[in-house]
Amino acid sequence: QVQLVESGGGLVQAGGSLKLSCAASGRTGGRYAMGWFRQAPAKEREFVAVIRWSGDTYYSDSVKGRFTISRDDAKTTIYLQMNSLKLDDTAVYYCAGRPDYYYTSSALEYDYWGQGTQVTVSS
Known about the structure:
four-stranded antiparallel sheet, 11 strands
């Protein structure tokens, strides 16, 4: 089992920046893809970004050019640097992980989830 714990959420004004972190523990010795999803009230959980074991990164069109996903050298902590935040970025952000066999942006295919961290962008 892999446990994921997010941190770094909060309240920020539109146009501002915020950096989320996700620390993995437990059976982290495998080859995992780790990513970020978000869920706004009354909306489905949506893909934000993922970093594969190889280091390849993928982003949703809505955040491309504004958000950057990265990880530490130990590959046990990932980050999401969020710049130029918009009101529509307000959501609970979840860290997720899965054994990395192929790229997928489907939340249904991720096995491990954090508890979520709230990001609120105000005008």
